[in-house]
Design goal:
Largest sheet: 5 strands, mixed
Structural class: mainly alpha
Distance between the termini: 76 Å
Helix content: 55-70%
Radius of gyration: 26 Å
Shape: globular
Length: 706
């Protein structure tokens, strides 16, 4: 009997695959239920980040698309699946059974995955492994070492951050940072020796290394917004339920990317919540430039597509993006939507399905990213309709209006009505509030205060030092190259129209207009952040950067010069984004490898700082806790609710009759307080605030006054 079953299973590749996945499911379940160390962490993450997406993908007629595209779509669809599955599970059980406890979560996941396996088997039973994966591995006498080397970079990031955290030994981190531009140079010099898989592998591993560098610095989460994100995750995780009613006024809480998604990972894998935000989100973020590379590879050769993707990776906001994980997830789905729109290997039916999933996932991940993305994507999606209006309005013979993609638009808007109308009304209100601020600020006139500091820096306003000036120059040169690319596309429109989709060119123009608006219109850059919008725009503008420098090389009649120009600008940008120019100048600045760096003081969180916050929390205090513009991060990690914390003490500089004052490392050891983020003052200016108060706790890194 067993022999017959084995023969039947081995009869075709689809049987073998489904049986293998079933065995993996059983192994994953056992490792989770028995809490087997390492296996639970690895399988709990790997299985549920790959298999659901692969099964969904297998249901679509996408067998002809290349292996790498399938891999990226597999990961992205799995992440989207977990968020939507979590939403459905949450409202299926309601509060009668806590949905995000182990048994209901794992049982429900098993049922869904088994159902997907059955449907996939019936649909694909006649397909071979080659058809399912479309795997090609022909080295073609190419060098394998160029593909293997970047594996070293994430390893160096892990070792380097560990040594820096424990011993303040920065050599390994610096070696990694120096190796990245050296490796890129080698890849360009020996491009004829490089296998075609080298470029996507390199872009992924460089991205992962830089994200891990940021994420693994300190034993705790690292950044600004991420502390609020971690707090809402803790609420969902502790309640084992996404309580949208109680938290309806919290826009952060309504982002499923930082509530439901990490909760599912935490329950399944038993990984500490902070390390989910440090490592799993680093992997998710590393997919963003990879999706960009796949998009660019449609219009450029692999080496130029690689360089265009590096422009994204070398952005300071991307390197620090684990400080805003909800946007990182939303950015993945925005980039994915752009890739899907313009990839010709995907059939029209599959394109629509994947596009809807991507946009929906983006909407529930981060509201402001979705607002910007939809504003720019909708005209591109509606392009067939808009084109058909031209002959109609001109009263030409061909008056037929093309309603292509209207079904996509209807489903997107229907979802938005449900999402914002039923669940996330506060997110819509936040968007409306921002528009009101912009309107009132515009009416009041243009002032420097209404601009983000990074926008002012473009014009050289607010330069603080020579390294700061170098950073401004590097970024301005990148902007100038993009402008040259736009000019080249405009002057040679017919030429580039043959090379690029009209919709993609339209996206370039739309994002340029958006960036101009960010500069001109008051408060826009301040509310959203110029680095944030620029990173989002690079899915369209990075090709313009390459085109701009290509056009310069053509003008000088030296075609290969473009590689040199691109490389020099990218390395300059990389140096500035990783603060190496400060290091060479002798000014401690980096949060990652300078123990006395200014940013390290702001971002790095010591265990003792958390211990002080935990002590205060365990004391069951019933009064307000006062701290400076950064100290609240430490208090929140110590378990103190944000509504019990005030950051106005040093900003208002007024004494308080009752309450506690929490001081953290920089306050104590450097005598500095942050009245607001990035605004320092000497603590001696605030001695009056401590009159009549006495120290009730002090561990050297945190101090509490009563």
């Amino acid at each position: 009997m067993i022999t017959e079953i084995i023969k039947k299973i081995s009869s075709n590749d689809a049987n073998k695959l489904i049986f293998t996945l079933f065995c993996l499911l059983i192994a994953t379940d056992l490792s989770i239920f028995l809490n087997i160390p390492i296996l639970r962490e690895v399988l709990g993450v790997v299985f549920f980040t790959t298999v659901p997406g692969f099964l969904i993908l297998s249901l679509l007629p996408l067998h002809k698309i290349k292996f790498l595209k399938k891999i990226v779509l597999t990961f992205a669809l799995s992440i989207a699946f977990l968020m939507f599955f979590g939403l459905g599970l949450n409202f299926l059980y309601l509060v009668n059974i806590k949905p995000f406890t182990l048994v209901p979560l794992l049982v429900s996941l098993n049922l869904i995955i088994l159902a997907l396996m059955l449907i996939s088997f019936k649909k694909n039973k006649n397909l071979t492994f080659d058809q399912l994966f479309n795997w090609e591995m022909n080295l073609e006498n190419k060098s394998i070492s160029l593909a293997i080397f970047p594996i070293l970079l994430p390893i160096l990031a892990i070792i380097g951050t560990f040594l820096m955290n424990k011993m303040e030994y920065n050599f390994i981190i610096l070696v990694m940072l120096f190796l990245i531009p050296i490796y890129v140079a080698c890849l360009l010099i020996f491009k004829n020796k490089a296998h075609h898989s080298t470029y996507p592998l390199a872009i992924w591993l460089i991205s992962l290394a830089l994200l891990l560098l940021n994420g693994l610095t300190s034993n705790h989460i690292f950044g600004i917004d991420v502390h609020h994100e971690y707090a809402v995750f803790n609420i969902t995780f502790s309640q084992a339920f996404w309580d949208v009613v109680t938290n309806a006024s919290n826009a952060y809480y309504l982002c499923t990317s930082i509530t439901i998604l990490p909760t599912i990972y935490a329950v399944l894998s038993n990984i500490n919540g902070e390390y989910i935000f440090k490592t799993i989100y680093a992997f998710i973020g590393s997919l963003v430039p990879l999706v960009a590379y796949l998009t660019f590879n449609k219009y450029f050769k692999k080496d130029k597509a690689f360089l265009a993707a590096l422009l994204i990776v070398f952005q300071n906001f991307f390197i620090l993006s684990l400080g805003c994980t909800r946007q990182l997830v939303a950015l993945l789905f925005f980039f994915l939507a752009v890739f899907i729109l313009f990839d010709k290997e995907i059939s029209d039916k599959s394109r629509k399905i994947l596009l809807i999933i991507s946009v929906w996932a983006m909407i529930i991940s981060h509201y402001s990213t979705a607002y910007v993305a939809l504003t720019l994507l909708l005209p591109i999606i509606l392009l067939p309709f808009l084109k058909s209006l031209v002959p109609y309005l001109k009263n030409l013979k061909n008056k037929k209006i093309n309603f292509q993609n209207f079904d996509v638009i209807v489903l997107i808007f229907a979802f938005m009505v449900v999402w914002y109308g039923v669940f996330a009304g506060i997110q819509l209100a936040a968007g409306s509030g921002s528009m009101e601020q912009i309107s009132s600020s515009t009416a009041s006139g243009i002032t420097a205060d209404s601009r983000d500091a990074s926008v002012l820096a473009i014009f050289g306003i607010g330069v603080k030092s020579l390294p700061n000036l170098m950073s401004i120059i590097a970024n301005d040169l990148v902007f100038f190259a993009i402008f040259l690319g736009l000019l080249g596309i405009t002057l040679k429109f017919k030429y580039y129209r043959k090379k690029m989709d009209f919709g993609f060119i339209l996206g370039i123009y739309l994002f340029i207009l958006l960036l101009i608006m960010f500069i001109i219109v008051p408060m826009v850059s301040k509310l959203y952040g110029a680095p944030r919008i620029f990173l989002q725009s690079l899915i369209f503008l990075a090709p313009a950067f390459i085109i701009g420098l290509d056009e310069v090389a053509k003008l000088l009649r030296k075609v290969n010069l473009s590689y040199v120009l691109i490389f020099v600008l990218l390395v300059s940008l990389f140096s500035c984004s990783t603060y190496l120019q400060y290091y060479f100048y002798g000014t401690p600045y980096s949060p990652h490898y300078d123990s006395n760096g200014k940013l390290r003081g702001e971002y790095f969180i010591y265990d003792q700082e958390i211990m002080g916050a935990q002590w205060l929390n365990n004391s069951k205090i019933d009064q307000k806790i006062y701290t400076d513009g950064i100290g609240h991060q430490r208090l929140m990690l110590g378990g103190i609710q944000f509504n019990n914390i005030s950051q106005q003490l040093f900003l208002d500089n007024k004494t308080i009759p009752h309450g506690y004052i929490y001081e953290w490392n920089v306050n104590i050891k450097k005598g500095i307080v942050y009245t607001q983020l990035e605004e320092e003052e000497n603590i001696t200016n605030f001695r009056n605030l401590f009159i009549g108060k006495f120290i009730i706790y002090d561990n050297g890194y945190s101090r509490i006054w009563d």
